[in-house]
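Why show two proteins at once? Because comparison is the fastest way to build intuition. When a single record is shown, students tend to memorize it. When two are placed side by side, the eye starts asking what differs. So, the first record is below.
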Amino acid sequence: EEVATVLADEIRGKNVLITGTSLNGIGFETARVVAKYANLVITTGHNAERLNLAEGAIKNDILTANIRPLILDLSSLSAPLRLPSNILIAIHRHPTQILIHNAAATIGQFKLIADKLETQMATNHIGPFLLTKLLTPKILAAHTEHYTPRVVFVSSVGHSMTAGIDFDTLARPDATRYVPKDAYNQSKAANVLSTIELSKRSKGKINGYSLHPG
């Protein structure tokens, strides 16, 4: 809340999309404080009931909040592919100035999604990466002489606790070699690496950030 107050002028009038905004989580609190100043806050989650509860709680706290909830399961790689038309409607054809990737999964057992990818990597990075790629034209459209749009990944200090991304295991997940914590850390390392590369490739038109929430 203190950070949002200090950065109020940076947020005011902006369209912000935040993933993983279930009630009382980090994403929810981010959406709540940003909603005080933003033009529109698009919240996403895979559970409609929890998403609606979060929307109601924010609007109850901030009467002027403009919240648009959208169902999005980032563990399903087909979900972001269906999203762009909904986003265009939700933000009334205005650019997306700020995209915050907060959604994440932390599981203790080996599990594959329908796309045959390990769940933590799919939810924590590949799904968000695909969403970013699909929304890049809308994000780039927000760039002006005086404002550079932001893409933020909520990563973890765990990114530094892995030897790197095992691309062989990523392509061919193996339950016999699965270490849950390392899978999580690899997904967070992927967040950091992609943020750096996004900033490079956008050549100053998008600022990429990654952070440890603790």
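Second record. Ask yourself what differs from the first in the token line.
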Amino acid sequence: MKKKILIVEDDNLISTIFRMFLKELGYDLLGIVEDGKEAIRMCEQLNPDIVLMDVHLGGDLDGIQATEIIKTKFDIPVIFLSSDTEESTIQRVINTHSYGYLVKPIDKKELGISIELAFYKHQFDLDQKMRETRFRNFISDSPEAILVVNENGLIEYLNCLGLKLFKTAYIEDLMGLPLLSFVEEEDHADFKEKLDSSLTMEQGIEYTHLKLRTIHGDFIDVGLTGAQIEFNGKKNLQLIIRDVTQEYAYRQMLAEKANIINNFYDGVVTFDMNGKVRSWNKGCERIFEISEKEAIGKFYSEMGISKNQKTFAEDLLIPTNKKGNLELDIVMERNGSSCVLNVFSSLLRNDKEEETGIVCYIRDISEKRKHELLLEESEQRNRDLINAIPDLIFVVNKDGIFEDYKLDDESVLALRKDSIIGSHISDVFDNSTLKEVESKISKVLSIGFMEKFKYQMDTAKGLLWFEARITNLGNEKVLVLVRELLEIKKA
């Protein structure tokens, strides 16, 4: 198909020569116009393949002004024709991004070559624009944030997710800015080296983690990869970026938890379903005197807890599976002596709720057991001592409620032994004595010093005199020691 040519020339002689040249070269001449406005109208109506444009035209628009409009509205390639070689004119022509500049007088062969070059260069530019349009559409719809950086490290393009990543809706906030200006200082040097290598040595960027600053100044954790592409007719670097802030924070949290667990004073060990050790913290190293390296992969039975491997199922797996969790004490031989381990176990499950093993929290309670035995012995001695005291002993709280007592003979009280706990002091004392008792209890609780007083009570043995001593027991309770005053009775 013949290429369609429009001539814009106000010199009739020159336009006649061009008409003859074009006919001889086999082109289809759409017409000849003499001013810029008419050239624009003809381009809109006839859509020529090439426009031959005189630079200096009469009328409101010169050739350069008309070309700018034609390029913007119709994207038709223009070849300038002129005898003007002034620097200022040439610079104006360059700024229009025209497809050629022929200096008059023009040779027919030169004209033909210029037309062919302009046509195929324009076709190449159209193809390039189409590819870039498809590329832009592709990255705009991409589920990943995509950013294009030019050879100078400046941001050339971002898709919608890229804008969202930087927390802006306007590409103008980022276009033309150095990508490195958004990289946190501690990552700056390392990423600059990778970016420079990729741009100069035509190699990609392998997965890299770094912190990027958003438009608002806050930092996000990202993971990115890069590859060389051609964009706007130049070599550029395409970066695929993913926001990993939450993922990174989660990994950090898991690492911190693992570090905390590993440094527990008490032991934490996990077993698989066969009783093989999967993890072993420092607490376990202390309790069992076995290093993590030695313990991983060993069986429950090899920990010195049991000689029979089947006891993993019997001791832990079956009971834990049945109850959901289990607490038991195990006696283990260590360095020729027995030690007592308190083990709390629970099942481990994956995200599909499948059982994958057991985690055990282990405490060496050998010393605790010794202290408990000593405490029990001490408490028994105290009980024996208290029982040897002939006095009546009561524990009363701040509200005047009896919480405990020691009483050998209930005949000295107005209450039965089985009704003492939970009763109120008003059930024991008459109104005149009650006020004094309440006052003494309040004073002891607030000041802390012992108080004593004498009172008379009608009992099963008759009217008796008693002396009560009240001391602060702590926890808003008082200890009341009551003794019968036999000397008053004798008197």
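One difference worth noting in the second protein: DSSP finds 14 helices and 20 strands in the chain.
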